[in-house]
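Good morning,

Attaching, inline, the backbone tokens for the sequence recovery test we're adding to the shared suite. The designed sequence is right after.
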């Protein structure tokens, strides 16, 4: 299927009006798009009517599933805030990639670098915002699917804390990590949308108590430190002063505070840019993600045997066939890591991390 016009961001265009016409609502006058992983009903004048079929990035999924019977709470929140939805956006199939490609519907065009991939899996949502087609958009983030396309497309992306926003009405990828996130070009819009989704009052921002910069993580970036940590440090010093800046070696801290990681480090897992403890953390996360994805979708995959893109097919089928081992250890890693980061950051600390080690990947590197 050929991708649609408008930077190839949309899989389906329509208009879904806000639930109130009041001009006093916080999101009045704003338009948004929704990733094709989120359930929505068509709204009539007074009642919800037939729902849209959520496609999960794959025509066979759309063909074998019924129309939505509910609208996701996250969509209702922004509709009730006064925003207007204009369509559903393209995504990586089954949310199982970070590049933003889709062989069925086309790869959305990165508005910042048309010869580069847009990042995924919320690729269409990021492109719709980056290309100025909507004011904001909703996506989902399991392992970077809002943060990465936001980075590649030169816009703002926000992944909230896990469970901070309801994922009801969102097709699960891996529940331990799934979140609803959002994109915007304007930080003011990002803030307004976030307050609607998180049900937060309009209060003054809180000054962070400490800002941690993990030098080992930034050293992995291909971008010179003068353009990353150097700019960051100068900005922080200008805004709040340099006294709250702290430098940390995150790999060493995680290794010390998350002892269950030794189960993964013992396998020689040092491939993640030579920070062994973070490589082990990545392995633990991916193992748990595969296990949950398998429980969610193995039955459908084996029954339907859908047409999957060649780059994704092996990854998805490997997940379906993977043994369920060390899952208890993965849960221990999760618990220990949460405690470690809570102890490090307290209530008002910030840990600054690079989103990706490289700029956008070129079309030839997929």
């Amino acid at each position: 299927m050929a991708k649609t016009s408008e930077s190839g961001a949309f899989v389906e265009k329509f208009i879904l009006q806000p639930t109130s016409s009041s001009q006093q609502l916080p999101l009045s006058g704003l338009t948004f798009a929704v990733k094709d992983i989120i359930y929505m009903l068509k709204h009539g004048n007074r009642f919800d009517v037939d729902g849209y079929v959520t496609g999960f990035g794959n025509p066979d999924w759309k063909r074998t599933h019924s129309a939505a019977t509910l609208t996701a709470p996250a969509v209702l929140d922004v509709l009730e805030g006064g925003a207007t939805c204009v369509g559903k956006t393209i995504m990586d199939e089954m949310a199982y990639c970070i590049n933003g490609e889709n062989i069925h519907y086309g790869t959305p065009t990165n508005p910042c670098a048309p010869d580069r991939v847009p990042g995924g899996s919320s690729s269409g949502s990021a492109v719709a915002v980056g290309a100025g087609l909507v004011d904001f958009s909703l996506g989902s983030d399991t392992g970077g699917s809002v943060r990465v396309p936001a980075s590649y497309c030169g816009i703002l992306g926000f992944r909230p804390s896990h469970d901070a926003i309801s994922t009801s009405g969102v097709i699960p990828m891996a529940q331990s990590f799934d979140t609803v996130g959002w994109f915007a070009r304007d930080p003011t819009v990002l803030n307004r949308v976030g307050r609607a989704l998180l049900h937060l009052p309009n209060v003054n921002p809180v000054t962070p108590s400490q800002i941690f910069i993990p030098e080992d993580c930034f050293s992995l970036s291909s971008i010179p430190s003068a353009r990353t940590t150097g700019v960051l440090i100068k900005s922080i010093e200008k805004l709040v002063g340099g006294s709250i800046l702290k430098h940390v070696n995150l790999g060493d801290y995680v290794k010390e505070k998350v002892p269950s990681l030794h189960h993964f480090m013992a396998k020689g897992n040092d491939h993640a840019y030579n920070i062994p403890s973070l490589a082990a953390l990545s392995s633990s996360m991916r193992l748990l993600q595969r296990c949950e994805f398998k429980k969610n979708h193995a039955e459908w995959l084996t029954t339907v045997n859908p047409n999957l893109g060649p780059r994704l097919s092996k990854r998805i089928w490997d997940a379906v066939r993977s043994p369920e081992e060390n899952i208890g250890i993965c849960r221990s890693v999760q618990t220990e890591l949460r405690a470690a980061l809570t102890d490090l950051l307290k209530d008002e600390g910030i840990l600054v991390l690079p989103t990706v080690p490289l700029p956008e990947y070129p079309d030839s590197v997929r």
